[in-house]
C-alpha cells in the first residue's frame, strides 16, 4: 500500500482530493530548501548521475543538486514541472498526456524544439482522472496516425473520447456508475478510489477497481465487484469481472503478446501464518503482527491476467520466502506460492490458497507499484524488451522500501526478475526527494517518468538521444 493510501486513512474520510494528494507527499520527503543528503550506493550497472534541471524549473526539490542512479552513459533531466503528476500516455500526435487526479485535469505536454514541453489542459472538471490509454491504428508508413480514441478512467466512470488535432471531443461513457468515495453505500470510506485503464488488441477495455480498505472482504461480493479488473467488450456492453482478488491493481497494461498484466499493491500488517515461533519468540507466533515479518510480506504481485483468474486477496497472499516463515530466509520473487491469510481465512474454508496458480512475478512487500507499461524495442539492450514499473516506495516499512523505476525483462511470454532502471530518490536515512509514479517510452526513444512528489516529469535518455 502506498503512503497516499495511508494518508487517506489519517485524514477525514470526506477530505477534498487535493488535500489527500498533498498528504501523500509524506514526512519522508525533503522539505523545500533542505540540503540534500547522500544518495544510496549505485546498483550494478548504474551510475550516479546529476539530474539536469533547466533554470526555470529549479523550485524545490530542485533548489539543490539532485543525483539519480541510471544506466551508465544515460542522462536524466527535468523535462516539465507538473504538480501531482500521476499516470501518463503518449498520444498519436506525439504529445504526452498526464493525469492530475487532485485537480480533475488531464494535461497535454507538447515537446518543444530545444527541449522541454508546453503544457495545456486537455480536459478539466473530471472526477479524479487517473488511468489513460489509447486505441488507434498505425498508418501505412508504420508511424501512428494523429488521431485515435482516448480512454480516461475517472474514479466513478470510464470515458472514451475522440482524439484529434490536440483535442479530446465527443465523450461517451464506457463504464458508468463505478464505486468511489461518493457512493452512498460506502459513506465516504474508500482507500483506493483511483482507477487505471488499458485497451486490449481486440479493442476490449480493461479497468481496475481497487479495494475499499486493507482487508475489506465485502469488496469481493459487491456489485460491481471491487478489488477486481473488469472488462468491457469491443463495441461496448456491460462491464464484467475479468480477474478478482486484485487488492489494488493500479499497474495495468497490455504486453507485447496481447496479454493483460497488473502490478498490485497488496495488504499491510499481515499476521504471521505459521503455528511456530518466529525469530526470538518463545512460543507460537501464529496470528501475531510482527513488524520484522510484516516488512517483507506479502509480496506485491505482478501477474498475467486471464478470464476468471483470482489473485487471492484478502484470503490468500503471495509468500516470497524460500523457507516459508523462517526469519532471515532468502526471497524468491518469481512464482511465489499463496499462503492462507490468518486474519481472514484461518482454516482455508474461504478460499483454497493451494489451488491458486502462483503469480508470475513479484516485487518486495510494500513497494507500492503504480504505473505499468511495456517496451517492445526502442531502448538499447538489456532494456529493449520488458516492463517499466513506477515503484512509489513504502510508507510503513523500516527501513523504507525505496522509490524507483523498475525494469522486468520480457522473455518467452513472461517477465523476469526486477531490476532497477532509475534509483537514488531515497537517502540512507530514508528521506526522499522524489517518488516515481509511471514510466513510458517516448517516440524519441527516451523514457518519460512522472513524479507526484517532486512535481516533475523526467526525461531519461540512452546515449545519443
Mean pLDDT: 90
* Largest beta sheet: strand ordering: 12-13-14-15-19
- Please identify the structural class as seen in this structure: mainly beta
Q: Overall 3D geometry? A: globular
Strand content: 25-35%
Return residue spans where pLDDT drops below 50 for at least 5 consecutive residues.
1-39, 137-143
Major sheet summary line: 5 strands, mixed
Number of helices: 3
User: Any idea what the radius of gyration is?
Assistant: 21 Å
Total beta strand runs: 30
Share in helix: under 10%
* Span between termini: 35 Å
Describe this structure in words.
The protein is mostly beta strands and 465 residues long. 4% of the residues lie in helices and 33% in strands. Strands 12-13-14-15-19 form a five-stranded mixed sheet, with no helix packed on it. A hairpin with a 5-residue loop joins strand 28 and strand 29. It is globular. The N terminus is likely disordered.
Brief descriptors of the model:
465 residues, mainly beta, five-stranded mixed beta sheet, five-stranded antiparallel beta sheet, 30 strands, 4% helix, 33% strand, disordered N terminus
Brief synopsis:
The protein has helices at residues 3-10, 17-23, 291-294, and strands spanning 46-50, 67-71, 75-81, 88-90, 96-100, 105-111, 117-123, 131-135, 148-153, 158-164, 167-175, 197-199, 205-209, 228-232, 240-244, 251-254, 260-263, 300-305, 309-310, 316-318, 338-340, 361-363, 369-376, 385-391, 404-411, 414-415, 419-422, 436-441, 447-451, 456-461. The two termini are 35 Å apart. It is mainly β and 465 residues long.
Amino acid at each position: 500500500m502506498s503512503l497516499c493510501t495511508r494518508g487517506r486513512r489519517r485524514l477525514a474520510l470526506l477530505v477534498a482530493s487535493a488535500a489527500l494528494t498533498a498528504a501523500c507527499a509524506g514526512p519522508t520527503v525533503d522539505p523545500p530548501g533542505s540540503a540534500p543528503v547522500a544518495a544510496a550506493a549505485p546498483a550494478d550497472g548504474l551510475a550516479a548521475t546529476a539530474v539536469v534541471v533547466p533554470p526555470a524549473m529549479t523550485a524545490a526539490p530542485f533548489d539543490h543538486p539532485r543525483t539519480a542512479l541510471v544506466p551508465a552513459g544515460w542522462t536524466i533531466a527535468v523535462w516539465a514541472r507538473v504538480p501531482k503528476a500521476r499516470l501518463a500516455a503518449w498520444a498519436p500526435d506525439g504529445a504526452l498526456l498526464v493525469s492530475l487526479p487532485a485537480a480533475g485535469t488531464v494535461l497535454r505536454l507538447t515537446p518543444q524544439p530545444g527541449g522541454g514541453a508546453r503544457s495545456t489542459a486537455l480536459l478539466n472538471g473530471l472526477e479524479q482522472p487517473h488511468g489513460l490509454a489509447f486505441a488507434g491504428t498505425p498508418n501505412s508508413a508504420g508511424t501512428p496516425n494523429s488521431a485515435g480514441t482516448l480512454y480516461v478512467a475517472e474514479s466513478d466512470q470510464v470515458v472514451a473520447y475522440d482524439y484529434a488535432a490536440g483535442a479530446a471531443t465527443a465523450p461517451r461513457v464506457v463504464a458508468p456508475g463505478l464505486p468511489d468515495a461518493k457512493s452512498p453505500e460506502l459513506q465516504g470510506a474508500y482507500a483506493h478510489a483511483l482507477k487505471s485503464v488499458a485497451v486490449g488488441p481486440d479493442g476490449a477495455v480493461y479497468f481496475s477497481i481497487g479495494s475499499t480498505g486493507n482487508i475489506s472482504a465485502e469488496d469481493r461480493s459487491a456489485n460491481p465487484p471491487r478489488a477486481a479488473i473488469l472488462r468491457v467488450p469491443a463495441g461496448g456492453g456491460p462491464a464484467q469481472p475479468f480477474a478478482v482478488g486484485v487488492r489494488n491493481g493500479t499497474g495495468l497494461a497490455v504486453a507485447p503478446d496481447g496479454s493483460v498484466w497488473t502490478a498490485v499493491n497488496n495488504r499491510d500488517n499481515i499476521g504471521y501464518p505459521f503455528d511456530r515461533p518466529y525469530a526470538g519468540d518463545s512460543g507460537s507466533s501464529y496470528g501475531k503482527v510482527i513488524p520484522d515479518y510484516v516488512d517483507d510480506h506479502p509480496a506485491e504481485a505482478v501477474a498475467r491476467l486471464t478470464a476468471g483468474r483470482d489473485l487471492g486477496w484478502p484470503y490468500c497472499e503471495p509468500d516470497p520466502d524460500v523457507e516459508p516463515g523462517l526469519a532471515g530466509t532468502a526471497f524468491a520473487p518469481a512464482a511465489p506460492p499463496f499462503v492462507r491469510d490468518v486474519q481472514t481465512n484461518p482454516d482455508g474454508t474461504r478460499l483454497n490458497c493451494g489451488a491458486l496458480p502462483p503469480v508470475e512475478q513479484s516485487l518486495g512487500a510494500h513497494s507500492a507499484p503504480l504505473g505499468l507499461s511495456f517496451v517492445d524495442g526502442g531502448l538499447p539492450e538489456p532494456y529493449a524488451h520488458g516492463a517499466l514499473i513506477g515503484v512509489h516506495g513504502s510508507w510503513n516499512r523500516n527501513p523504507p522500501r525505496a522509490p524507483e523505476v523498475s525494469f522486468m525483462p520480457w522473455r518467452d511470454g513472461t517477465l523476469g526478475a526486477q531490476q532497477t532502471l532509475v534509483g537514488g530518490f531515497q537517502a540512507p536515512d530514508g528521506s526522499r526527494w522524489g517518488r516515481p509514479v509511471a514510466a513510458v517510452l517516448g517516440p524519441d526513444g527516451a523514457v518519460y517518468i512522472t513524479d507526484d512528489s517532486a512535481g516533475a516529469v523526467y526525461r531519461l535518455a540512452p546515449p545519443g538521444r
